[in-house]
Design brief:
single chain; 11 strands; 7 helices; alpha/beta; 7-stranded parallel sheet; two-stranded parallel ribbon
């Protein structure tokens, strides 16, 4: 454990009941962190924690990240139980239906914005408040940006827009956090093998109009990258990093 960090180090992972969030939360536990698992389903969070041999250093804080009151309640629990937060991983997110923009219901657009973007904003706002006031001051925030923060898939206007906006949130907060020892970075992930990406193994629409299967990578590689970013001293920051399945159709022409 890095001597520059207080002991124990406290982390909050949103969307920790499954997929990337679960893998990263468990990897942080393995690396010695105390981890708060956040998500909308308490049963999924408890099941994820129970699967770890380090469950004694974890607890579940159910709550919808798009709900301002629920987010404030989660952070109040953290404040009361630990008095500080050293890492926030803004991971919670949803895909929207693959539809052309002229067929996309506005409620689907709003759902994507509420969870993918507003949820990250609400959690980051509370993290700033706590990290600025705690002693020692400061902490780290890592946002899950996605490959879609760089390039869209066909018919993904809502998801892609929120992930481009996440990049703006990362840059703005990285700047504003400097004065308070708050390091903010982003991990852009491509084709991690989770339930949410199962369709990639069956076939995904491509920019040229064809449908092809896509390479995926084990989600543990994402977790390893996240732990590495989180383990840096606050004097160093990975502002942006991309981890992707080597063979996925991202680098190249449509």
């Amino acid at each position: 454990m890095n001597a520059s960090h207080p002991t124990p180090r406290i982390a909050l992972v949103t969307g920790a009941g499954s997929g990337i969030g679960k893998a990263c939360a468990l990897a942080l536990l393995e690396a010695g962190w105390t981890v708060i698992f956040n998500g909308r389903r308490a049963d999924a969070l408890e099941a994820a924690i129970a699967g770890s041999p380090h469950a004694a250093r974890a607890w579940a804080a159910a709550g919808d990240v798009s709900d301002e009151v629920a987010v404030a309640a989660v952070f109040e629990q953290i404040r009361q139980r630990h008095g500080r937060l050293d890492l926030l991983f803004n991971n919670a997110g949803v895909f929207t239906a693959g539809l052309p923009i002229d067929e996309l219901p506005v409620q689907e657009w709003r759902r994507a914005v509420d969870i993918n973007l507003t949820g990250a904003f609400l959690c980051t706002r509370e993290a700033f408040r706590l990290m600025k006031s705690q002693d020692p001051r400061g902490g780290r925030i890592i946002n899950n940006g996605s490959i879609s923060a760089h390039a869209p898939r066909p018919d993904s206007v809502a998801y892609t827009s929120t992930k481009h906006a996440m990049t703006g949130l990362t840059k703005s907060c990285a700047l504003d956090g400097r004065a308070f020892g708050i390091a903010v970075g982003q991990i852009d992930i491509g084709n991690a093998a989770t339930d949410m990406t199962a369709a990639m193994a069956r076939g995904m629409a491509q920019a040229d109009g064809n449908v092809r299967t896509e390479a995926r990578m084990e989600v543990r590689h994402v977790a390893d990258a996240l732990v590495q970013m989180a383990s840096l001293p606050l004097s160093a920051n990975v502002l942006f990093t991309t981890i992707m399945a080597t063979g996925m159709p991202f680098v190249g022409r449509g």
